[in-house]
Amino acid sequence: MGDMPTSHHYFACVAQRARRTCGILLLIFAFAWIGSSRADERQERVLMLHAFNYTFPATTLIGDAARKRLVDRSRGRVEIDADFLDLNRASDPEHEVRTAAFLREKYSNHPPDVIMTLGSAALPFIVKHRDAIAPNTPVVFTGVSQANYSSSQPPPDMTGIITEFNLEKTLILAERLQPNARRLVLIAGNSPTDRLWQERARRIVENRERKLETAYLFGLPYDVLVSKVAKIPYDAIVVVLTVFVDGVGEPHVPMEVARTVAQLSPAPVYAPYDTYLGNGVVGGYIETFESVGSAAADLMLEIIAGKDPATLQPKTNPGQTYRVDFRAMRRWNLRESDLPSDTIILFRESSLWEQHHELVLVALSAFALQTLFVGALLIQQRRRKRAEALLKESEERMTFTAAFMNIGLWQFDRQTGKLWATEHCRALFGLGPDVPLTRETILSKIHPEDQVNAIASVQEASKNDHSAITDVRVTRSDDKVHWVRIRARSHSDNRDAASQMSGIFADITEQKAAEAEAALQRQEVAHLMRVSVLGELSGAIAHEINQPLTAILSNAQAALYLLTQNSPDLGEVRDVLQDIVDEDNRAGEVVHRLRSLLKKGERKFEVVNINDLIKSTIALLNSELISRRVNVKAELANALPSTWGDPIQLQQVLLNLFMNAMDAMGSTPMMQRRVVVFSRAAQTGAVEVLVKDHGSGISAEQDRLFEAFYSTKNHGLGLGLTVCSTIVEAHGGNITLTNDAAGGAVATLSLPAQEMLIAAQ
Questions:
Q1: In terms of DSSP H, where are the helices of 207-279?
Q2: Closest CA to 253 of 434, 53, 444
Q3: Nearest partner of 634 among 607, 659, 651, 613, judged by Cα
Q4: Which pLDDT value is given to residue 96?
């Protein structure tokens, strides 16, 4: 008990010492934190030296981009100063000395940590005067060409971005867009930078393979330059470089000079500078000044972070590419398809989708959601009475949309016989406003020949869940033929609407007219191709007709001679007259075949014996085969099933295949000129005809043989096989061309047999 106070005093002392120790530690940590914060808040200084004054947009763009990158990526505070050296207007040594002295005095108390030069003339200035302005301060340069960099001979601690204003690639772009250009006009001023461009441009033009008639508008007074630009020929390529100073020493802004040249020049104007784009220049191989500024800022950030600038080698900006102004291309009628594939096209007018795609997507999404909502209301219509108003509103919207699309909506109850239809159905069927929309009034407007098909189609739809479609003619008061497509579908899968049928009426008059016009044009082309083939066979046909006529004449003369005798041999006279009849029939058969092929009219489908058609075609080509020394061997299958089609059009296909076979053997030796034609019944039930020649076969471009206006013949139109393919497809068949393993080519014509067509129907 006596020791209690002593122990209490001991623990109190210990607690007091602990508090004192914690306070000291907290104070140490506070000073350390303040010190680190001050270290982190160390302010870095960057001095930007513009070679020219504030009116030059190129260096301004570089500086703005570098400033933004430094502020965004610097860990601490960066203070950025800028001065304009104005070296283009006052380039005398005294001005440089005065400017260097001014900068030394201005930044003597707060020297920069990094100096950034903007513009080609600023690098030689800082190389010469850095020791006077800010000794040993690292320098990052921009806007300096490789030649300017080499001639300046900067020390190792000066690095930066070497700019390649690539005139050669700019000329390549111009020649792609103007392949017929014969003249080249180059424009540059008279400042030191301009003169560097002059030397470089002359060297590039002289070393190019393609030589153009070149005019150098270098170092001219501004008014002389303007007058000469206005007289440039239309077929020239104009390249404007830099005009900092004209021939009389007057300073200019190169971008403004480029704008004036583009406005006055009758020929397209190109340039390798980014700032010229948007001022009438077509474009060139360009790097953006923003990318130069960003790349230079990255180098400065590395130096600020402590990296030795001597280890940072100057590098080329990788952001160079072809850039063009879409508006300038359209002004000079230059084709976008001639541009290199990686070209960036600026100022293109955006399409409606590009401008408002978000709004369109929102509208489509809203429409989709609205449709789903209406469907949900229809499903719940018996459970929720309030759905009637929404359903009516949806009905009105759907009716308006359908009328806008020239479509009428209808619904029919088979039990009550009531028809509901939108008001637009009146216009489709030519019904007046006082005529009720009923099943009977609509049927009365359908052409009598199409009423049976319309009723049958609706009845078919009522028996299954699939849609039934039929096209009918409608008689209106304007006495014109109108076509309406009827689409019907039953709802037997829905117990609540098992007796309901719904569908649409759509006006397809224009579609039918287009189909009829296309069919008529196909018939015209097919007829012209038949006439063309017969024109090629005109000599052979004349010979084919001349033979029986010659035989008729000879037999008639012989009969006359026999009749002049006192006792003519009547049996011999009868034989002579029979020969005349036979030869006349032969000539008549040739003329009949020609009339059939030359006849123009609608297709008439009938039963066709393909073997008889092959024999008739060979007979028609008999004289042509003889004149070309071509033998024909026919291996026709017996008991071949008949097919169904237009015999005239099918014979046109066979004629074309035989003519192609003969043409293919133009270079084949006469003893080997042989065409073999087969007919057979395929396992699929189709009838096949194979025409094989002994020519050189089909080249590697055989996929294009059925392409319209493609021909392997010197004087071919390229329509024969295209028309044949169209005819065969219209008959439900197909035609192919392949190389034969034994040499030559084989054309295979496949047509469905009559039994297959009957089964399909």
A1: 222-229, 254-264
A2: 53
A3: 613
A4: 87
* CA end-to-end span of the chain: 123
Residue 742, pLDDT score: 81
Q: Which two tokens stand for residue 691?
A: 């025409």
What average pLDDT does range 206-211 have in this prediction?
88
The DSSP element (H or E) to which 186 belongs, if any, is strand 183-188
Q: Where are the beta strands (DSSP E) in 366-447?
A: 407-413, 419-421
CA 476 to chain centre: 44
CA distance 649 to 651: 5
Handedness of CA 493, 497, 500, 504 (dihedral sign): negative
Q: What token pair was written down for 22?
A: 């914690």
Of the candidates 46, 40, 42, the residue with the CA atom closest to the CA atom of residue 138: 46
Q: What angle do CA 599, 605, 609 make, to 5 degrees?
A: 95
CA distances from 665 to 88, 634, 675 (A): 78, 18, 9
Q: Quick one: which of 262, 241, 248 has its CA closest to 194? A: 241
Cα 354 vs. chain centroid, distance in angstroms? 16
CB 39 within 8 A of CB 73: no
What is the residue whose two structure tokens read 């400042």? 191
Strand 158-162 and strand 419-421: the pairing is unpaired
More confident residue, 202 or 524: 202
Q: Which long-range contacts (CB under 8 A, 24 or more apart) does 38-44 make?
A: 40/75, 40/76, 41/76, 41/77, 42/76, 42/77, 43/76, 43/77, 43/78, 43/79, 44/74, 44/76, 44/77, 44/78, 44/79, 44/113, 44/114, 44/304
Q: Say what the pTM is.
A: 0.39
CA distance 728 to 749: 8
